[in-house]
Amino acid sequence: MKIKPLTLELQKYHMRRLWPQFSATTNRGDRAWWTGTLQPTAMSDTYTVEIAYTVPRRPEVRVLFPVLRLHPGCARLPHVFPDGTLCVHTAWEWRADAIIAQTIIPWICAWLYFYEVWYQTGYWLGEGTHPDFPEHKVRDEGLAA
Q1: Where are the beta strands (DSSP E) in the chain?
Q2: Interatomic CA distance for residues 85 and 132, integer angstroms
């Protein structure tokens, strides 16, 4: 059975309702950009993020501010695509009939939380499809459980 994508208007409605701190910009009717702030925990930084969505593709997520930093000794950010967009879910988790406000936003919050832990510890606690990458390993062998 073929999935019918949610309309852009419905996606915009749910974003306004659930995440009013995000503002939307659209083009010809099949693409929207949301920009807003998220704070994954009360002790976290506040991040300005952008979500670019073209119906029915996977939303693309970028952190605009603050600039994401590398943990000392690490050469790259974990779970980030080569173009700088965040990898917040596995390929099969996103469907065009999903509500961005109920899926992508919580996934971004989780990614930001795991990023903050990684930045402090050098260890990515979130799940992923490439746990053999260096960012998934404890940097100090004495910390390994």
Answers
A1: 23-26, 31-38, 47-54, 60-65
A2: 21
Strands (E) located in 60-145: 60-65
Tell the residue number behind the tokens 């969505």, with chain if given.
Answer: 53
Structure tokens of 100?
């961005």
pTM over 0.85: yes
What is the separation of C-alpha 18 from the centre of its chain, rounded to a whole number of angstroms?
17
User: What pLDDT score does 73 carry?
Assistant: 84
Place of tokens 């930045």: 119
Q: What single DSSP character describes residue 129?
A: S
CATH numbers and ranges of domains, the chain:
8-129 (3.10.110)
Give the separation between CA 6 and CA 14, rounded to whole angstroms: 11
Asked if residues 46 and 116 have their Cβ atoms less than 8 Å apart, the reply is: no
Q: How far is CA 63 from the centre of its chain?
A: 8
**What's the confidence (pLDDT) of residue 12?**
95
User: Which long-range CB contacts under 8 A does 50-53 form with residues at least 24 apart?
Assistant: 51/22, 51/100, 51/104, 51/105, 51/108, 53/8, 53/11, 53/100
